[in-house]
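Blinded run. Sample ID left blank on purpose so nobody reads anything into the name before looking at the predicted structure. Input follows.
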Amino acid sequence: MKDLNTLKTVGLLNSIMEFELAGVVRYTHYSLMVTGPNRIPIVQFLKAQASESLLHAQQVGEIITGLEEGHPSLKIAPIEESHQHSIHDVLAESLSHESKALSLYKALLDEVADASVYLEEFARTMISNEEMHTLELRKMLRDFS
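Blinded prediction complete.
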């Protein structure tokens, strides 16, 4: 078993936390902007995504504060505003966001592999969650192709 690089791990976790908090803002914004006959189920989906992003940020923050020298960031990741709010655009941007989150959790897994069983399992669980989100978004986008 290798030693955990706490400094690098906390840095990755803070990047994830900032990205998840940006997801809260992103999904809340999207839920407000959706219009049309499919608005209600799409809004419910987006609000659930916002709530889940907040939960993920909180979980990551708890891990950060449990690590030596761990201090959670007060920042959120940059959020680009495309000013495109069709359901297709919102779902496509959501897919892009989830794909980026997936890459962050994979980077965490790479860093903690063979150093912390708990952090490995956490990263694997989050990767599984993000992969499920990307699959769901791809299904939702199929009718638009």
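Unblinding after everyone has recorded impressions. The two ends are 47 Å apart (CA to CA).
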